[in-house]
Amino acid sequence: MYLDPAFRRVVLRQVHNDTTRMVAPSYGFDLIPVVRHAWKSWGLEMGQHVCVLAVFVTGFMVNPPAILAVASGLGLWHLSRLMVRSAVAVLPLRSKEAMDRLLWRTRWRSESDELRQQTRLLQLSGVGCGVLIVTPPLIAGISQTSLDEMAIAAVLFTLLIVLAVAGRGAIHQLCLNRMHDTGPLRPRKLTRREQTINDQQSHPYVVYRRPSPQETEESKEDLDFDLLDSKTSPFVGSGKLIHRWTPPLTIQLLSSEGGPNISMEERERMAPPFKAHELVAHLKEAMGAMGDASDPTRLRGFDRNDRLYIAEADVPPGPEWLRERPDRDDIGRIVDDPHGIAHHFLEIRTSVTGEVMTTVFLRVSIKGRALSLDFAACALTRTPAEYHLLNAFKENDRSAVLRSAFRGLRNLPAGVAEARSLVEAPSFLIGAALARRNRLLVPRRGATIGAQLSIREEKSVPWNQAQLDKATIYDYMKLIEQRLLKAAEEFLESKKVDTSAFNKKATSIVNMGVLSMGGKIEMKQSAVGANAQVRPDTRESDDSYGDSPME
Q1: Is 280 helix (H, G, I), strand (E, B) or coil?
Q2: Quick check: 66 and 59 in contact, CB under 8 A?
């Protein structure tokens, strides 16, 4: 929250202030400290902007020439840095252009365009610096003010601005240090909106959004694994869908009693030998040993939950489950109803390192005198490396506070210019005031209550960049998968159900599961056929320099 202002605005607008939609489930983190520190960071930023704005307003009222000189100095600071960067970019481009002319080499249009842009930027910044240099003397002459007096007042106003910016940077780092040194970050008392967020982030019901036909009308080359699985996954907030049994594992509920010559009709029972919720309860109990606190080999961060997934279009107006959570009996009835609008999944999750989350979902249903097991696995990868800055050497002590203060001064003009964000402050405050009322409980025409984003998913490393964690994630997934299969087999045997078909399918899933992990092969810059060639450089040549003599 303190390191990413753009992400902070998303949290405040779409998580805290948006009460028309549910909050996405939280996996491996608590959303309450995130929201609380987002407001603290936003308050620090707005405090700096208010102080800077107060300095400028006071300056215009007391000594307008001096405050104009301050503005000119800040503009000169910004343009001079821009001019230096442009000059550093122009010099090598000019040298390369001269060598290309001398050696009759082909000039690419992108290089010529970049040279023209950097040259234009250098010229404009140079002219701007010249104008800003002569502006203070002109202002002093027009206002008939002594240049020395104006300079003293300008220095005073500049020091006040520096104090505001540096103070905010120091307090910013102090807050980060306190977060790093303290234990639990969860506040003792929650606001009304925070209490609602806390209830929703762990609510059994999860509302997912079905893709509209317009969203699925893509060209064939765009229909890759990411679009087909990740974008349509109902498992909101759990990360990348990395594995799924397709189709689900199904077996006939035939009695194990009798010989092999008995027909299927004779081995079938009119009523199933067990209810679906009984198998779910057995699996939940059997999986608990993997997270036993007394076991040194336990899976870290192990937890089991019941999740009820319902499509956004199927949510009735003002559903009762928003006011009162379903109890065990309600969940059992949903598990036993395979044709209901809500789909029950047994959720089993474990955290590999505290950040990398592996979550397994299993749906148990009995229909058509058969048992169906629908298995899926999702993974949350690590957060970006810059979010772990405090874990580095000398980044959480007193010297870090001083560096943070000077870091704000290094780009002082940009920090002052950001005061324009005060314009949107009223909308944040009004939204926070309105967020005290939970508008989910009020039926509205055309209302959609599904979560629009998961902030943990938004700030996860892309799956194709998590190569070092993939093996660990799949390892944990297979451990949970195999124990689920074994526990289900033992339960079926206890109910005198023939498990021969189940054993064959389970063995096939364990051995061949790698084929359905969701991997894909990409072929780029490939050539097929005799004498086929690939030209990877697709840039356009700059015709203004003529053709190369080799062409």
Answers
A1: helix
A2: yes
Do the beta carbons of residue 190 and residue 220 sit within 8 Å? Answer: no
Mean pLDDT of 234-258: 87
Q: Are 1 and 385 in contact (CB under 8 A)?
A: no
pTM of the predicted structure, to 2 decimals:
0.79
Mean pLDDT, residues 351-365 taken together: 88
Average pLDDT, the chain: 83
Token pair of 169 as six digits: 């940077």
| Measured distance CA(372)–CA(248) in Å, rounded | 6
Helix residue ranges per DSSP H, 236-275: 264-267
pLDDT above 60 (res 216): no
Contact at 8 Å (CB) between 36 and 12? no
ω into residue 247 within 30 of 0, thus cis?
yes
Q: Which residues of 428-462 are buried (b: 16+ CB within 10 A; e: fewer)?
A: beeebeebeebebeeeeeeeeebbebbbbbebbbe
Q: For the chain, how big is the Rg over CA atoms in Å?
A: 32
3-state helix, strand, coil in the chain (%, to 5): 55, 10, 35
Give the pLDDT band of residue 221 (cuts 50, 70, 90): very low
Cα 158 to Cα 539: distance, rounded to the nearest angstrom = 48
**By three-state DSSP, how is residue 450 classified?**
coil
Domain residue extents for the chain: 1-62+146-202+387-445, 64-145, 235-260+268-384+459-516
pLDDT of amino acid 516: 45
